[in-house]
Amino acid sequence: MILAQLVLNGLLMGAVYALFSSGLTLIWGMMNVVNFAHGDFVMLAMYVAFFAFTLLGLGPVFFVPIAAALLFLLGVLVYFALVRHVMRGPMLAQILGTFGLALVLRYGALWAFSANFVALPDTLLGEVQSLGGLRIEPGRVAAGLAALLMTLGLHLLLTRTALGSRLLAVAEDRTAAMLVGIRPDPMQALAWGIGALCTGVAGGLIALFFYIVPTVGESLALIAFVVVCLGGFGSVPGALIAGLAIGVIESVSAFWLGAAFKDVGVFALFLATLWFRPQGLLGRA
After folding, report:
1. Are 27 and 195 in contact (CB under 8 A)?
2. Among 55, 190, 228, 279, which has the highest number of CB atoms less than 10 A from its own CB?
C-alpha cells in the first residue's frame, strides 16, 4: 500500500513536471534555444496564484487562467525584447541571454517578495480523503489531472491543427516556411508564448501544494532540463513519459533514501540515458 501511495503521488507530480517541461521542449524544437529562465517563469506564476488568492480571494478556477495569461504575455515580450536579438548571435549569446534573464527574475523576486517561504492553504480544494487505503489530496489530484490534460492538448495542437502545422514548419525549416507564406517571427513569438503559458498553468497548479519562494525556480528548472533531455528535445510525448517517470522515481527515492537524496535516482537515470541514448527516449538521433 505504501508503494501504491508513492506511485500515485509520483504520477500526479510527474504530470505537472511534464506540463512545464513541454513548454521548454516546444521552445527548443522551434528555435534550438534553451530557456534557462523557464523555472523562474514557473516561480512567477506561483506568486501570481498566491497574491490572487491572498489579496483578491480568487480560487484556482480564476488564478490559474490569470497566471497562464500573464505568463503568455511575458513569453511573447521576452521573445521580442531579447530572444529575437540573441538568436542572431552565437550559441553563447543565447545561453547568457536567457541565463541573465533568469537571474533578473529571481533576484527581482527576492527584492520584491523577500526570501520568506509562503504557501497556499493545504485545504484550498478540500480536505484530504481516503480511498481504498490511499491518501487522496484534492490539490495534487486536480493539479495532476489538469496538467495531464494540458500536455495532451498541447500535443494535439501541434499535430492536429493548422496552427500546429505552421509552428512545426518553422521549426523544421525557417527558410522553406517563408517561401510558402509563413512568417517565422509571429510563429516563434507564439511558441514562446505557449511555452510560457505552460509554465503559468503549471505554476498555478503547483502552488496548490508546493512551497513558494523566489529560488524555487532553480530546482524546477533543473527538473525541466532532465525531463526534456530524458524524453528527447522537441518531443512533447517524450516529455510526458519522462515527467511521469521522474515523478515516480523521485517519490520512491525520497521514501527509500530520504528527502535529501530524492534526486539521486533521477540523476542516475538521466546519466544512464545520456550514456546509452543521448537523443532521449523519443528524440531523433
Report:
1. yes
2. 228
Instruction: Using the CB atoms, write b or e for 165-203: b if 16+ within 10 Å.
Output: ebbbbbbeebeebeeeebebeebbbbbbbbbbbbbbbbb
The Cα–Cα gap between 57 and 54 comes to 6
Helices (H), the chain: 2-31, 38-56, 60-78, 84-86, 91-113, 138-160, 162-172, 174-179, 184-206, 216-231, 236-257, 264-276
SS3 130: strand
pTM higher than 0.85: yes
Asked if the 2-127+135-276 domain carries CATH number 1.10.3470, the reply is yes
Cβ-count burial 55-69 (b if 16+ within 10 Å, e if not): eeebebeebbebbbe
Query: Would you say residue 260 has pLDDT above 70?
Result: no
Cα gap 112→137, rounded to integer Å: 31
Q: What is the pLDDT of residue 123?
A: 75
* Average pLDDT of every residue of the chain: 86
d(CA 251, CA 140): 13
Query: What SS3 state is found at 129?
Result: strand
